[in-house]
Amino acid sequence: MKKVAIIMGSDSDLPIVKKAAEVLKDFGVSCEMRVLSAHRCAADVTAFATKAEENGFGVIIAAAGKAAHLAGAIAGQTPLPVIGIPIKASALEGIDALLSTVQMPAGVPVATVAIDGAANAAYLAVQILAVGDDELMAKMKDYRAKQTAKVLEADKKVREEYSF
Ligand code: RP5
Asked: What is the pLDDT of residues 29-61, one digit of tens each?
């Protein structure tokens, strides 16, 4: 199975970004995590992005805050799907990173999740890989079924206690 790369602009993003790695681990998807900054080490971002496909990656998750150019810079240098996580890291509460990540020009998309939405970035990466992997798709269906059952169980409890 293809691997997922998780790239973050700074190790200060790690407390949020590590949730993506945890989700991937739950699904048995291999991941490699890096700290690479579009601004502070642009040449290393290029070296990673241009080799990502031949290095066995299938999806790239890129997380950055403030003027968050990392996901877009990677997306512009690889044909692989890129998922952006805007990180809340400034006085603008992540709105800066959200707009910097999501507003890509046509032809170079970044699939952007919510501010600090690391778990959803990983779920989306799993869904992308699962399209070509029946076993992974079965795991995703199982996860969804359990999620539904959990909500319906909560519904049952709330209805029993508060309906009168
Ligand atoms: C971004 O700037 C990083 O992704 C991080 O979210 C933010 C702050 O970085 P540090 O100054 O903490 O390294 O590039």
From this structure: 999 999 999 999 999 999 999 999 999 999 999
Report which protein residue has its CA nearest ligand 1's atom 2. 65
Q: What share of the chain is helix, strand, coil (3-state, %, to 5)?
A: 50, 15, 35
Query: Which pTM was predicted?
Result: 0.97
Among protein residues, the one whose CA lies closest to atom 14 of ligand 1: 9
Q: Return the beta strands (E) in 20-140 as ranges.
A: 31-35, 57-65, 82-87, 111-112
> Which residue range is the domain that position 50 belongs to?
3-132
pLDDT at 55: 98
Nearest CA to ligand 1 atom 1: 65
Give per-residue pLDDT as tens, 68-89: 999 999 999 999 999 999 999 9
Which atom of ligand 1 lies nearest, measured to the CA of 87? 6
Domain check: are 96 and 62 in the same one?
A: yes
Same domain, 111 and 147: no
Domain count, the chain: 2
In short, whether 37's Cβ falls inside 6 Å of ligand 1 is yes
Q: Which two tokens stand for residue 102?
A: 């999501």
Q: What CATH number is attached to the domain comprising 112? A: 3.40.50.1970
